[in-house]
Amino acid sequence: MSSSQRTCETWLRRHGFKVTGIFAAVTILAIAGALTVFAPTAPGAAQTQSVAAKRTPLLSPTVKSTTAARGVTRPITVVGIGDSVTSGYACHCTAFVGLYAAQLGTKNGLQTSSVNLGVPGWTSAQLLAAMTQPGAFRNQVAKADIVLVTIGANDLNPLKLKEPSGCLASCYSPLIDSVGHNVELIVDAARAAQPNHPPTVLVTNYWNVFQDGDVGLDKDGATFQNWSTALTRAEGTRICQGAQRAGAICVSLYAPFLGNDSSNPTSLLAADGDHPNAAGHQRIASALLAATPQPIA
Question: Is 21 left (phi over 0), alpha (psi -120 to 50) or beta?
Fold first, then answer.
């Protein structure tokens, strides 16, 4: 029996209580516990308790839920970099960069803004050069909380003149390896532009690096379409590898546009069969939104 329990037993006997059986044991333990609670605590013990409380703060479920949902309350800047797909070429609509930023804000209760730095015709080498040279372009990227990257289709334009049967994997692998390497360096540069608060970077690949849908089939034929599909998927894999090696999130656009390989993407494409229309840009924005990590950092 502890000293506090002996004190309790003595007090009970002095005041005429019988200290026997279960009642006595329970009573002694209860009073002893009360004495322990109100007993003075040594300074060292109090400090330890305070530190422990700081390590494991007790938040109500409501506070935890609110914090996770909002993440941050400051304005979030989204910057899109890449080629004509990023720029919204041939769409005459709000490109996916602006759609994504607006819907991200609505979903998370945040104030958002967007900057679209897409340049039609750019290759991965040209984007990398802009990202690694001091100037207005890099300065804009440095303001981003989230960077969206779509690049690499124009790198493969030289292959359009080749016969599909004469340019299989051994032919196009050097080009797509170069794209994957450049994407990795582009992501690194995006993070280095703002080292104190590296942005979240999401990189997309493509549904097709050349024309697709009814336009592509009518112009190039089924054999060419099958080859461009194989080429697109190979480059898409390499783009994702480069993105992930640099710590970015890769968002595939193949399934959103083509489903299980049997979907015709014509309804998502502009009249040129090469660029997304308004519905296509919305499809890209939705894919990016679904892949964005929560809470927003």
Answer: left
Write the DSSP assignment of the chain as a string of letters.
--HHHHHHHHHHHHTT----HHHHHHHHHHHHHHHHHHS---HHHHHHHHHHHHHS----HHHHHHHHHHS--S-EEEEEEESHHHHTTTT-S--HHHHHHHHHHHHHT--EEEEEEE-TT--HHHHHHHHHSSSHHHHHHHT-SEEEEE--SGGGGGGGGS-GGG--HHHHHHHHHHHHHHHHHHHHHHHHTSTTSPPEEEEE--S-SS--HHHHHHHHHHHHHHHHHHHHHHHHHHHHHHHHHTTPEEE--HHHHHTTTT--GGGGB-TTSSSB-HHHHHHHHHHHHHHS-SS--
Question: Which of these, 231, 233, 286, lies nearest to 103 by C-alpha position?
Answer: 286
Is a pLDDT exceeding 50 seen at residue 191? yes
Report the alpha-carbon distance of residue 60 to residue 138 in Å, rounded: 43
pLDDT in tens, 5-40: 444 444 444 444 444 443 344 343 333 443 333 333
What the chain holds in terms of domains, given with CATH numbers, is 3-58 (no CATH), 71-291 (3.40.50.1110)
Q: Which two tokens stand for residue 16?
A: 């005429």
Q: What percent of the chain has pLDDT over 70?
A: 76
Confidence of residue 1 (pLDDT cuts 50, 70, 90): low
Residue found by looking up tokens 């992501």 in the block: 187
